[in-house]
Amino acid sequence: xxxxxxxxxxxxxxxxxxxxxxxxxxxxxxxxxxxxxxxxxxxxxxxxxxxxxxxxxxxxxxxxxxxxxxxxxxxxxxxxxxxxxxxxxxxxxxxxxxxxxxxxxxxxxxxxxxxxxxxxxxxxxxxxxxxxxxxxxxxxxxxxxxxxxxxxxxxxxxxxxxxxxxxxxxxxxxxxxxxxxxxxxxxxxxxxxxxxxxxxxxxxxxxxxxxxxxxxxxxxxxxxxxxxxxxxxxxxxxxxxxxxxxxxxxxxxxxxxxxxxxxxxxxxxxxxxxxxxxxxxxxxxxxxxxxxxxxxxxxxxxxxxxxxxxxxxxxxxxxxxxxxxxxxxxxxxxxxxxxxxxxxxxxxxxxxxxxxxxxxxxxxxxxxxxxxxxxxxxxxxxxxxxxxxxxxxxxxxxxxxxxxxxxxxxxxx
Length: 413
Hints:
By secondary structure, the chain is of the alpha+beta class.
């Protein structure tokens, strides 16, 4: 019995009981669709997390002041970081590309009859665009000369521009912050909302020296945090170690003494999030895969019923020369056809479901839109697995049919 003939016979046999075949396929369809959709949505979440950390900057490492416990048991932050620390990190650590200090502030900006308080107002130095991987859309970023002279200049995010200037070009215009005039010299490219819905474009940025001297009226030479960028992802760990050793030396922290700063590697945090999302994706896929097993049991049950119903037909085939392996192959092909049809339909439904789920999440979420990711490798694996389900769960009924005695089969009513 050749392969094409076996396939034709299998399709003819399945066509005689269309409703039963459709119900049998349904379990496989649900399983494949669930696996494809869950893996795709999981990969979408993972890609979203990776995008968030890429938006934070290029290979970013953050240095924050340490904490100390007061006599009352209250922990307070130590103001231990200085602009000189940031410059030293960039110049003395071979694995560090750039570094910038951060000084935070909060004050409304006024232009004409409009006023707006940015979600984030802070001071940095000229290396900020490099560290944060943030391009300038209009104008320019301030220079080292502006930082050294505490120039009254600023760079705005898109949200601040829309609320203060509407459609007007803000470059060269003057805004007032705490009644101090600042010239707008640049506008950032849009970054959009982050994962939790915070608007990253709602920022007003000035030289950190300007924030300290003109907005805060402070003569303290300290900064809130330092943000640095490693030269590559591969050098992140080396950069972190170099930064830590340099700061320990600069702050004269001896062996066994507690450091007055902390170094946080955002890549490690991103990896943790990737592991979490990957584990959740595998867990969802495993749960969805259970329905494939249920679908396989359904195929086995229907094939056993089919063997019983076609016992006489099997006897006739054997009587005219069919061998046991021909009967085995016939029923295996029928089982595989059922599972493959279910697999193809399931993949199509799964792709549609993953797009639909991602769209629904974006519709109800106020955060950064989830990217639509179609996991074709997962769909292919699920399709191959569905064929395997057909073979595994169809083998016993097929083997049972091939072992029937021709004489007994012919006598079966």
